[in-house]
């Protein structure tokens, strides 16, 4: 039984105002708009072998999932998926390293800190496609070849680094400096202080930043498309598929990639919650 | 807390003259002066309290002794050794933070063992030593708990153990009791004092509570606006406050302007009643507070300066007064303590 918790359930005779129902309906419609099309896609990905890209369902099968990995397709989905995961992992790692360092540095004012901050903001506001275009032009001008781990990596970092920095601001803001002073007091050198105090305390936030950067990179299209070079990432491969052919296989790809995204987010959230639960300890129980 | 045969070897063989000496220590932030030429000598194994209102510079002073704040001018000496430019861990001090700053990701045992781990001492040895310290603060049953699972008072004990494991010559405490409820505060106060006496090291304790400072101090420092207002034992300060500020801040005094200058009279030496041959002050009863052994009668005086009398309960109830009544505060001349500010030394009456 709940003790002390205030509940807002309506008692007998005290109904909710009509605005509640109006807003609840609006919210319901919004959810339908948000998830309806995706739901349709997930269902259609299990279309029977004879079925098409629209309802009705002609039987039920997983052939379209098998189709994804079948060799001799127009698009090489498994290879581009692997590339996307590899790129996202590197982007995520670099974003974490740089935004943690920058987040800690921005705790105090330093020469040019204001300018640096606004440059980071500007990078978020710039039209994505044009950023990619600019990087592509730059590579051409320098006579370099565009590629997955060069120009595409750079283009994605222009997006994930400012994001990571802002997220770290929020994380670092809540960090009590007294922890670091206590570490100094107890004889930790700067590296030990970072390794044994600052980093573990900030870890839940850092995992969050890493997860955010990973998913931003994993489905990035606009900045990457012009600088990807010869080998595509998954979103670009899918786009190529959509414009050239359509079969329920596309839906199967959508279902799989959504599952991967949810898996990553779920794992990260699980880890963060576990860390926080451990630290908050029995407070909730008391 | 019981001390279980604790040894704290002193690093300098000769007995130092002072455990802590501040020589004209100043802290400036840009143009603002937070601590203004504070000098202080703390004899070995003293309990010293820095007392003052918020923003008076007491915490900055403590942090400069700890090495967490850079000294703008002046010198900090610990056991006759100049530590002004040394990092916190090499000063022979340990600090207990107001928030305790226990590492939330480490259990009590590893929190206490932290400094030994930083020095590269093996797991078995450092944990054994940490257990001894947890026993010292009677927290041995909580070794595996995380700080989040402890009450405020328990966290404080663990923080104390973590500070003491470094075998400091001087323990610095930043408002250590302010987070505790009043009942626990009095109990922890006793324990801090006992621990200091049994360890035989110096404690420097920052507080804004005069009760706390009076109860604990061997040496008490009253600060205001970055400056030392008075240094002495609690009794010296209570019996002869140096200025109107000190008399008002430590409480229990009436500050009265007389033709000869300002004087302070202890409220418990004042009486309510008809003026006699001695000095008196007329006013109106503003409030009557029954406090058990005494009754506090607060007065509104013509000058606007509040005054009060602490009357023994039987004396009050023999002749009670009620709020609003006109009354007179009387005291005897020898109880009036002259305050330092520009008062001629001889008495004229």
Determine the CATH superfamily of the largest domain in chain A: MetI-like
Provide the low-confidence segments of chain A as ranges: 1-7, 282-286
Class inferred from helices and paired strands of chain B:
alpha+beta
Helix content of chain B: 25-40%
Biggest sheet statistics of chain A: none
What's the oligomerization state?
heterodimer
Number of domains of chain B: 2
- The tally of helices of chain A reads 10
Name of the top-level CATH class of the largest domain in chain B:
Alpha Beta
* Highest-level CATH class of the largest domain in chain A: Mainly Alpha
The N- to C-terminal Cα distance of chain B equals: 54 Å
Question: Which architecture of the largest domain in chain A per CATH?
Answer: Orthogonal Bundle
Per CATH, the superfamily of the largest domain in chain B is P-loop containing nucleotide triphosphate hydrolases
Instruction: Give the largest chain-chain interface (CB within 8 Å).
Output: A-B, 25 and 29 residues
- Helix content percent band of chain A: 55-70%
Mean pLDDT of chain A: 84
- The parts of chain B where pLDDT drops under 50 for at least 5 residues are 1-7, 342-349
Question: How would you describe what is shown here?
Answer:
The complex is a heterodimer of chains A (286) and B (349). Chain A has helices at residues 18-44, 63-69, 77-105, 113-125, 128-142, 148-173, 177-185, 190-218, 234-244, 248-280. By secondary structure, chain A is mainly α. Chain A folds into two domains: 18-64, no CATH class; 76-244, MetI-like fold. The longest helix of chain A has 33 residues, at 248-280. Chain A is globular and about 70 Å long. The model of chain A is unreliable at 1-7 and 282-286 (pLDDT under 50). With 349 residues, chain B is of the alpha+beta class. Chain B has two domains: 20-237, P-loop containing nucleotide triphosphate hydrolases (Rossmann fold), CATH 3.40.50; 254-338, OB fold (Dihydrolipoamide Acetyltransferase, E2P) (Beta Barrel), CATH 2.40.50.140. Chain B is built from nine helices and 18 strands. Chain B has helices at 58-66, 108-118, 123-136, 152-164, 182-199, 210-216, 234-239, 244-250, 313-318; strands at residues 20-29, 32-42, 47-51, 73-78, 81-82, 93-96, 170-174, 202-207, 219-224, 227-232, 253-258, 261-266, 271-272, 280-290, 294-301, 306-312, 326-330, 336-338. In chain B, strand 11 (253-258) and strand 12 (261-266) form a beta hairpin. In chain B, helix 2 (108-118) crosses helix 3, helix 2 runs parallel beside helix 4 and helix 3 packs across helix 4. Chain B is elongated and about 75 Å long. The chains are: A mainly alpha (286), B alpha+beta (349).
């Amino acid at each position: 039984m709940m003790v002390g918790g205030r509940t807002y359930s309506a008692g007998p005779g005290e109904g909710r105002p009509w605005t509640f129902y109006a807003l609840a309906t609006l919210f319901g419609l919004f959810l339908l708009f948000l998830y309806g099309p995706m739901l349709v896609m997930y269902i259609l990905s299990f279309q029977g072998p004879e079925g098409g890209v629209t309802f009705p369902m002609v039987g039920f099968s997983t052939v379209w999932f098998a189709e994804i990995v079948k060799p001799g397709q127009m698009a090489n989905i498994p290879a581009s998926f692997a590339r996307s995961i590899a790129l996202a992992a590197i982007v995520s790692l670099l974003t974490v390293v740089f935004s943690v360092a920058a987040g800690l540095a921005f705790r105090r004012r330093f020469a040019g800190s204001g300018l640096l901050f606004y440059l980071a903001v500007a990078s978020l506001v710039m039209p994505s496609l044009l950023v990619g275009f600019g990087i592509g032009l730059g590579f051409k001008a320098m006579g370099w070849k565009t590629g997955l781990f060069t120009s595409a990596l750079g283009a994605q970092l222009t997006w994930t680094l400012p994001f990571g920095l802002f997220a770290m601001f929020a994380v670092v803001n809540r960090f009590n400096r007294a922890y670091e002073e206590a570490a100094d007091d107890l004889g930790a050198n700067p590296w030990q202080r970072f390794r044994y105090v600052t980093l573990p305390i900030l870890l839940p936030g850092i995992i969050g930043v890493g997860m955010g950067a990973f998913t931003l990179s994993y489905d990035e299209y606009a900045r990457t498309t012009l600088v990807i070079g010869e080998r595509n990432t998954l979103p670009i491969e899918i786009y190529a598929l959509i414009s050239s052919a359509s079969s329920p296989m596309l839906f199967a790809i959508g279902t799989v990639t959504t599952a991967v995204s949810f898996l990553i987010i779920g794992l990260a959230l699980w880890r963060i919650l576990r860390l926080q639960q451990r630290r908050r300890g029995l407070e909730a129980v008391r | 807390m019981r001390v279980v045969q604790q040894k704290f070897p002193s690093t300098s063989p000769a007995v130092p003259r002072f455990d802590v000496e501040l020589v004209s220590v100043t802290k400036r932030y840009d143009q603002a002066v937070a601590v203004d030429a504070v000098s202080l000598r703390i004899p070995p194994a003293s309990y010293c309290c820095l007392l003052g209102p918020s923003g008076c510079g007491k915490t900055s002073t403590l942090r400069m002794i700890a090495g967490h704040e850079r000294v703008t001018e002046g010198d900090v000496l610990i056991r006759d050794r100049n530590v002004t430019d040394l990092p916190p861990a090499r000063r022979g001090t340990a600090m207990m933070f107001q928030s305790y700053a226990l590492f939330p990701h480490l259990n009590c045992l590893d929190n206490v063992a932290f400094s030994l781990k930083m020095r590269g001492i093996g797991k078995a040895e450092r944990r054994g030593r940490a257990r001894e310290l947890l026993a010292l603060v009677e927290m041995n049953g909580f070794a595996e708990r995380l700080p989040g699972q402890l009450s405020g008072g328990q966290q404080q004990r663990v923080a104390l153990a973590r500070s003491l494991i470094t075998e400091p010559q001087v323990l610095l405490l930043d408002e250590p009791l302010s987070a505790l409820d009043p009942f626990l505060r009095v109990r922890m106060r006793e324990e801090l004092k006992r621990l200091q006496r049994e360890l035989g090291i110096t404690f420097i304790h920052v507080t804004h509570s005069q009760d706390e400072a009076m109860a604990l101090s061997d040496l008490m420092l009253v600060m205001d606006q970055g400056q030392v207002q008075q240094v002495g034992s609690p009794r010296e300060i209570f019996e002869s406050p140096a200025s109107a500020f000190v008399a008002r801040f430590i409480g229990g005094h009436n500050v009265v302007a007389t033709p000869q200058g300002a004087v302070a009279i202890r409220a418990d030496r004042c009486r309510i009643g008809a003026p006699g041959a001695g000095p008196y002050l007329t006013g109106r009863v503003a409030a009557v507070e029954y406090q058990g052994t005494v009754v506090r009668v607060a007065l509104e005086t013509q000058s606007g300066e509040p005054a009060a009398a602490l009357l023994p309960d039987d004396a009050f109830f023999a002749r009670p007064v009620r709020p609003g009544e006109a009354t007179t505060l009387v005291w005897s001349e020898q109880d009036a303590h002259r305050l330092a500010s520009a008062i001629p030394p001889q008495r004229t009456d």
